[in-house]
Design goal:
The chain has about 240 residues and is mainly beta. The chain has one helix and 18 strands. It is globular.
Length: about 240
């Protein structure tokens, strides 16, 4: 698993550029159907039952949170280890209360997605039963997930969702179905596809499971041949 929250210290947050390379996965933040660039943000609240963990999108209405243009008098985009006092879970999120924020994850060369993603803060953050929901698209597939009073459900597409071990009650493991290693990009967004208003939807993407791309059989044969050649040359030099 690539854990997106670990780039900043425990109990702090960070603001990043519109694109950030996590080594195995590159994250990009955008908004609306045209994917206009937005800033990424990350939370790493490690209290006894962490929920606000992972990366999200700074929406256009964010003015009083980590997404503000100036933070502590410093307008630099990339800042990690920022105090939680400037964090707002209501404004730093995947959709920013219906602003159609989108989080794009692209697997880097040499790796492939396996279909498992951890989603943080699928909670009833305003206490009115407005549980988080959202969707993820990959290839020709779309999955919609919704937080409920007792857990979370997938109500469109092929996938399973359940609590993520080691996290709080509002963090869930989403396992996509019909997943192919050839899928190199996934897009997380708000509400349901085509829904421009959304609900709360301030969920974060905490982690993604990736594995190295297997070397084709021909590649193993080539490596074996090179090894044999090196051994033969070494014997000749010793002889």
């Amino acid at each position: 698993m690539v854990n997106f929250n670990t780039i900043t210290a425990n109990d702090t947050v960070g603001r990043m550029a519109t694109t950030y390379d996590f080594g195995q996965v590159t994250a990009m933040a955008g908004e609306s159907d045209s994917f206009s660039p937005r800033y990424l943000t990350v939370a790493n609240f490690q209290y006894p039952n962490p929920e606000e963990v992972g990366i999200g999108v700074c929406g256009w209405t964010d003015t009083a949170s980590v997404c503000a243009t100036s933070i502590n008098g410093n307008s630099a985009v990339q800042q990690f280890g920022l105090p939680s006092s400037i964090w707002s879970g209501d404004t730093t999120e995947v959709d920013n209360l219906g602003a159609k924020d989108q989080l794009k994850l692209i697997v880097n060369a040499g790796y492939q997605f396996t279909g498992q993603f951890i989603l943080g803060s699928l909670d009833d953050n305003n206490g009115s039963g407005g549980f988080e929901d959202g969707y993820v698209t990959y290839g020709a597939s779309t999955v919609h997930f919704t937080r409920t009073a007792t857990g979370a459900v997938v109500d469109m597409g092929t996938a399973t969702i359940g609590h993520a071990a080691g996290f709080g009650a509002d963090v869930f493991l989403l396992t996509l179905g019909n997943f192919s290693p050839s899928i190199t990009q996934v897009m997380f967004a708000a509400g349901a596809p085509g829904n421009t208003t959304g609900t709360n939807n301030d969920y974060l993407v905490t982690a993604a499971d990736v594995t190295p791309v297997p070397l084709p059989a021909a590649g193993w044969l080539l490596l074996g041949g090179l090894g044999a050649l090196r051994a033969a040359l070494r014997r000749r030099s010793l002889g």
